[in-house]
Amino acid sequence: MSIIRPYGDTTGDGMVQLSFTLPIPHDKRAEGAAVQLANTMGMDPALVVHAKAMGPDFTFFVVYGPVNHLVDTGKVEVVERDYPLLSPKEVNLAIRKTLRRRLTIVGACIGTDAHTVGIDAIMNIKGFAGEKGLEYYRELKVVNLGAQVAVPELVRRAKAEKADAILVSQVVTQREAHVLNTKEMSAAFREAYADDARPVLVAGGPRFTEQMAGELGVDRVFGRGTTPGEVASYLVDALVTRRRQTPSKRSA
Amino acid sequence: MVPVTRTVKKLDLDPVTVRKARSLARKAGRPIVDLARQHTTVSVERAVLRLAGLAGADTEGIPWVNRLADTVRADVGLEHGLALPVWDALVRGEAEDLSVLAQKAATGSVTFRLPEGRDAVRARSAARKATAAGLKRVDARRRERDRLIKRHGDPEQRPWIYLIVATGDIYEDIPQAQAAAREGADIIAVIRSTGQSLLDYVPEGATREGFAGTYATQENFRLMRAALDETSRELGRYVRLTNYASGLCMPEIATLAGLERLDMMLNDSMYGILFRDINPIRTFVDQRFSRQVHARAGIIINTGEDNYLTTADAVEAAHTVTVSQLLNEYFAKEAGLEDWQLGLGHAFEINPDLPDSFRLELAHAMLARQLFPEAPLKWMPPTRHMTGDVFRGYLLDGFFNLVGAMTGQGILLVGMMTEAVVTPWISDRDLALQNVRYVMGAAGNLHEDFRPEPDGFIASRARQVLSESVELLEEIVDDGLLNAIGDGTFGLMKRPQDAGRGLDGVAKRSPEYYNPAIELLEEAPPPPSSSSLPRTPADVRAKGRRK
User: Could you read off the pLDDT of A133-152 as tens digits, one per residue?
Assistant: First the structure.
């Protein structure tokens, strides 16, 4: 079944909940305006279950109702995971057997972003969502440069550490800063390295979508909810499995 | 009459252990204070120029204090302080005032020297006079605050409700801050642009462009304080304003806060080192000066222990919070701050999936309350385990508020259910305040009935954290605090003392070193003031002026 609708308590009822604020005082007209908005969004009938004045100039609404839109799951576009998910043991084994040395990963929050929560969730031994971070993997050498690292400094450290992969995180962003910062980073690495010697570039953060890799000039983008295990599995796939098939200078 | 929400002596803590913890914190902190007294930084020296009235920036936006400081440093070095060479030039008649001198210095038409003998005496006395005038303005602003609090009154309830505004545009911030105050905020914090902590100058003027926050500038401070004064009048309640004295310019920002009557400043002894990779010595020198200014200005500092728990595990690292609070207390008191000015931080960051997580949070919050009974503790909401599930987040914030109510916190930073999703929407703020009001209304006095079993889970956990804190403090005393920071003891960050940002702005003081601001701050007792965080509104009326 590829055509579906939202599910409230009966198959096919199409029920959704919605909350929003309108910049008008709370009165009957405001509630009518909320219904009109919900109708336009495809909710019909729209039931305003809650309306509350927030100060003299704003009203907050909660609206319930069925949407008349259908979803065709056959037409949904996603980046499917194109690498096998490995356990930490399997990651370590793959690196040890094939590479015969540790993989070096350098991570940082670049630009003005001071929020290390993303990079820490992936890299710190503590990890995220019950999975240990990359520091836990014996065959990974992890260098976490922390917050507000300038791009030239990141390139310098990547060279000094002979990095196999670069992980950058961008959490807080205004006016597309996360996109600009990441583009600056990927351009700097492309300039500083020969194509076949460049480390694998990975960007992560809640504002990125996986489809943005090409635009950003990185090899992979990870979005919200990514676990350390997914990143480690990807790195093994990119740096160990695939490299064996197409040998390059880096594997020397 | 609002009852006192405090949980003093509810935990059976061994007074000998508590005393030992304090004395170890003193031992660990003492060498750092000595180090701070042996060094100066570019920002401490620029703060002197700001106190003496030098303001404004050149056409490129570089402040005149930076232009002047850089020229003097190039001519005579930083190690003697800027006051002697600068006021020597003024006494010599190189310029009629500081701002003309700065302009001349920028064009290279004046050469600085280190005065000796009678010239040095004259320069010293002129520098002292000019700086004292600035401190007088700070004192006047403090008296003004006392007057306004008396006129408008303090919030009825505790904890005080602290809300954040962060649009990047001061003219957008102002109506938002006023609206937040009308909705019930007692304290407005204007978050800074993320890049500012690493700027080695303070931007000038009213600013409309910032990243995830608004630049801290003297003009932005003035505009926001004036707007909140208007709102305080309207609401009949003094609304406090908070900003950040952190990063590379913290001494200057502390000074500007004193000059513009900000009421609270985020000011942590180690935050810049750990989370901004600022050089440890730079930080400790800047810290001491900024705290001396805050002490003088009657500003309540907010420390940043919550940050450790965003990187380390909130259960395993609970004792590092206590250790940091004890160190912050020592450094604060050494710099002249009083108990009522210590907004020591802690946070609700334990993984909610952990069994008994709420009981652990209660234990940690009660421990902090009992260790620092006179301090207005700052209680900070969950961030790390806010997943984007806003419904679960709203529940978590409710439990956070409940701990705040049950343990008599002084300042409650209101948690947003959209933490980690978006910067707060107007509806997020409204829902968050409803959450706070419901919990305070329903359970605000629960502390009267709540006494943990003397040997129960909560009391034992508090004792365990305290004893782990003592063990860690012992290690720090043996190892030296700078080494402990280098080893990653706090927040898992490793920060060696010979690295980090801003190191090139540090100099060891020479025997000729003279800093009139530090001299004045250290010799004068703080001016009379009644602005202590009151336990009840009645207290503040009864207390009156304290000599």
Answer: 888 888 999 888 877 788 99
Q: Is residue A120 located within the same domain as residue A21?
A: no
- Between CA B148 and CA B428 the distance in angstroms is 31
Residues A55 and A125 reside in one and the same domain: no
A52 lies in the same domain as A140: no
Q: Is the peptide bond before B159 cis (omega within 30 degrees of 0)?
A: yes
Q: What is the largest CA-CA distance in chain A?
A: 73
B212 contacts on A by Cβ (under 8 Å): 172-174
H-type helices in chain A, by residue range?
A: 28-40, 88-94, 117-123, 151-160, 177-192, 213-216, 228-236, 242-245
Q: What's the number of domains chain A is made of?
A: 2
Q: Tell whether A146 and A235 lie within a shared domain.
A: yes
Query: Quick check: helix, strand or coil at residue B212?
Result: coil
| Secondary structure of residue B483 in the 3-state scheme | helix
| ipTM of predicted complex | 0.80
DSSP-derived pairing of the beta strands A165-169 and A58-66 = unpaired
My answer on whether A128 and A244 are in the same domain is: yes
**Nearest-CA distance B325 → chain A (Å):** 23
For residue A21, give the CATH number of its domain: 3.30.30.60
Pick from A58, A120, A172: CB nearest B311: A120
Q: Which residues of A touch B311 (CB under 8 A)?
A: 116-117, 120, 124
Residue A4 falls inside a structural domain: no
Residue A3 lies in a domain: no
Question: What is the phi/psi pair of residue A141, to 5°?
Answer: -100, 120
The DSSP letter of residue A134 is G
Residues of A in contact with B179 (CB under 8 A): 55
Greatest mean pLDDT among B211-215, B481-485, B509-513 lies in B509-513
State the pLDDT confidence band at B186, using cuts at 50, 70 and 90: very high
Distances (CA, A) of A26 to A31, A34, A105: 7, 11, 55
Q: Is B271 considered catalytic here?
A: yes
User: Buried (b) or exposed (e) across A90-125, using 16+ Cβ within 10 A?
Assistant: ebbebbeeebeebbbbbbbbbbbbbbbbbbbbbbbe
Q: State the pLDDT confidence band at B196, using cuts at 50, 70 and 90.
A: confident
What is the residue range of A18's domain? 13-72
Closest CA to A24 of A51, A65, A67, A56: A56
* Per-residue confidence (pLDDT) for residue B193, from 0 to 100: 82
Whole-prediction pTM: 0.83
Chain A contact present for B194, CB below 8 A: yes
Structure tokens at A101: 């040395």
DSSP-derived secondary structure letter, A110 = B
Q: Are B187 and B225 in contact (CB under 8 A)?
A: no
- Output phi, psi for B354, to 5 deg: -75, 135
Give the largest Cα separation in chain B, rounded: 74
A67 and A101 share one domain: no
Rg (CA), chain A: 23
CATH number of B1-525: 3.20.20.440
SS3 B412: strand
Does A141 lie in the same domain as A97?
yes
Residues 6+ apart with CB under 8 A from A28: none
> B294: which 2 tokens?
């805050």
pLDDT band at A244; cut points 50, 70, 90 = low
**Within a domain: residue A6?**
no
